[in-house]
Amino acid sequence: MSVTIRRLEDGSRAAWDRFVEATPAATFFHRTGWADAVQRAFGHTPHYIFAERDGAVTGVLPLIRVRTRLFGDTLISNAFCVYGGVAAVDDDSAAALVAEAEALRESLGVSAVELRDREPVTEAARGRGWIERPDLYVTFRKPIDADNEKNMKAIPRKQRAMVRKAISLGLTSVVGTDAGALYPVYAESVRNLGTPVFSRRWFDTLMAVFGEDADIVTILNKDRPVASVMNFYFRDEVLPYYGGGTSEARACAANDFMYWEVMRRAADRGYRVFDFGRSKIDTGAFAFKHNWGFPDARLHYRFKLAPGQGIPDHNPANPKYRLFIKGWKKLPLPVANAVGPFIVRGLG
Predict the structure, then answer these.
(1) Listed residue (138, 139, 61, 134) closest to 311, CA to CA
(2) Is residue 242 within 8 Å of residue 203, measured between CB atoms?
(3) How far is CA 232 from CA 72, 165, 217, 315, in A?
(4) Closest CA to 296 of 275, 269, 311, 265
């Protein structure tokens, strides 16, 4: 039977999320809750579309229009996510969704559509005239065991020594749902990297939307929060997503201990895949994840551009942001926290 493309409405949300839960190509970031969170926190407009055949969902494509004066006007699947793109059970459904995304780009007048595919796309589902970004991002995913002693031994020796150092120094972890401990730690961490911080509202919104499928693990050094991370849970996977450490964290190996505690707690709860997330090739984060023994896998980001437009390049590796990053690192933290949210809402 032929494929029909529909817009997501309240009456189709349950069917969409059931499809996402059951479809291997789908990720946490394909869930309808992500559209709610982005719209509430940033005011961006979702354009979620799905393929249907004989009344059954056969593919989904979560698109969000991110439009700001600083960074232009783009449809992204999915905005503020490391994964997205088409999740479908067959090439016909995937191709129909891609064609609808192309039509949306034209009707809305946006400069580009960006699909953040985790896996390679078949030729039949790709569409015409799409450009894949040259190698920039990879992701790190690895199975974890029910036995945490095995998980500890699977960490390469030098990195395992850092985790044991933190344990010997008496660091402890707490888990909760309040972003109050996470936000100041995360804000300091990204300022030190020269990156604008999200608003506190974004973190509160994510926790409110995803409920028991999210938590925050915070590392304490003598009752002082020194590292913290927000984690998402999907099927049998745990995804530590927004995390960082204070200037004190490096000396006491708090970041290493933080990821160990996320892994340990997730394994105890029955999760069997640890998704260490996206990193740029040949960066410090890239090396850190390799040092944990995680293999990297290339991410496949592709673009359909309006005539005369280039691939959006709003990442810190872009040389034109070098002076901005250098200056941002020197900002007083209250200033960075006040200004950052107005900038970062357009980065998508």
Answers:
(1) 134
(2) yes
(3) 29, 27, 11, 23
(4) 275
In contact, 52 and 259? CB cutoff 8 Å: no
Which range marks the domain in which residue 159 is found?
A: 145-271
Amino acid at 186: Y
Strand-pairing partners, residue 287, are none
Of 249, 332, 341, which is closest to residue 43 (Cα–Cα)? 341
Other beta carbons within 10 Å of 231 = 21
Maximal C-alpha separation, the chain: 63
Residue with tokens 């040949």, as numbered in its chain: 282
105-114 tens-digit pLDDT:
999 999 999 9
Side-chain half-sphere CA neighbours of 22 within 13 A = 11
- Paired with 275 in beta bridges are 141
Q: Domains in the chain: how many in total?
A: 2
Label residue 242 left, alpha or beta by phi (over 0 means left) and psi (-120 to 50 means alpha).
beta
Question: Block means of pLDDT (10 residues each) for the chain, length 348 residues?
Answer: 92 97 97 97 97 96 93 93 96 96 96 94 86 89 98 96 97 96 95 93 97 97 96 98 95 97 98 96 92 95 92 71 85 94 89
pLDDT at 137: 93
Residues 124 and 152 in one domain: no
Query: Based on the domain organization, do 72 and 155 belong to the same domain?
Result: no
